[in-house]
Amino acid sequence: MAKEIKTIGVLTSGGDAPGMNAAIRAVVRTAVSRGIKVKGIKKGYMGLLNEEIVDLIPKNVSDIIQRGGTILGTARCLEFKTAEGQRKGAEVCRKHGIDGMVVVGGDGSYRGAQALSRNGINTIGIPGTIDLDIACTDYTIGFDTAVNTAMEAIDRVKDTSSSHERCSIIEVMGRNAGYIALWCGIANGAEDILLPEKYDFNEQNIINNIIANRKKGKTHHIIINAEGIGHSTSMARRIEAATGIETRATILGYMQRGGRPTCKDRYYASIMGAYAVDILREGKTNRVVCYRNGQYTDLDIEEALNMKKNVDEYEFEVAHLLSV
Ligand code: ADP
Ligand code: F6P
Fold this sequence. Notes:
By secondary structure, this protein is an alpha/beta fold. It folds into two domains: 7-142 and 261-306, Rossmann fold (3-Layer(aba) Sandwich); 144-258, Phosphofructokinase domain (Rossmann fold, 3-Layer(aba) Sandwich), CATH 3.40.50.460. It contains eleven helices and eleven strands. It has a seven-stranded mixed beta sheet with strand order 3-2-1-4-5-10-11, with helices on both faces. The chain is elongated and about 70 Å long. The structure holds adenosine-5'-diphosphate (ADP) and 6-O-phosphono-beta-D-fructofuranose. 6-O-phosphono-beta-D-fructofuranose (F6P) binds at residues 15, 129-131, 173-175, 227, 257.
């Protein structure tokens, strides 16, 4: 028989993502309906170390499912990367009676979850990142909202780009991962898509492509640049000089990370939040909740972190085929 969990803590960590509030709400409401108390930890692992801990009851999480950001706040905390910080974090949990923890965040946050687990606090991770770059799961909370926000913004830039017969470089988020760029590249019909995983930094190919498209009569040329490629503004200047075509850079930035979560983000976050509570009740620890092949499941954190995710070759090829 698994030791009965009496109090669950919940924290959000790393970059925020739309849908994190839906996950917090689901943790609180599922736990309370199962007779478990919930404590919210503010500002991620930093708030844990500083004991910024509040009681959460169902009414504290009403009217948040539709809100972007995270009501608990989030932070990056270097101290939690040290063995001493991790021991202290587990001690704080024990002091506040927290015997189970749910961490919503990306793979960095899972390392913290693993450390808590090693220090005796049953801990479960939930994938929360707009980047869709967690290999163990087909879905990460926040991606759908971010990619739709970016897509709508790019549509607008494309309108004005066509009117002025300009070339536009639009930079989307994703320091190490190009999923937002790839999805927008296909959904916005971009002429070029530059992903950190794929780009060979051969700008001459892009310049040739712009000139060839202009000869074919295209009035715009949209280049979607993932943040990890960087230098969108100087790239625009070089392209304008080489092609003679007016070129502008637009950096979408943090507007992609905020805003009302889509239905999909609210839905997956709700199920994953409930799932995390239920596997804590079964006595599980050091697991991450995943959605794989149409099913919710959970995996050992180490196993999950060792998995690799690559941009699908066929999807990337199709993006190019459709851009002619
Ligand atoms: P994400 O969770 O979105 O990947 P980060 O990589 O910034 O974001 O990680 C969020 C936080 O998780 C860090 O600020 C740190 O507190 C914690 N963390 C990251 N890596 C580790 C690690 N190796 N050990 C313990 N905690 C970590
Ligand atoms: O949350 C993921 C992400 O938005 C990445 O796409 C981006 O590279 C990074 O976070 C930026 O984080 P910050 O500027 O908040 O440190």
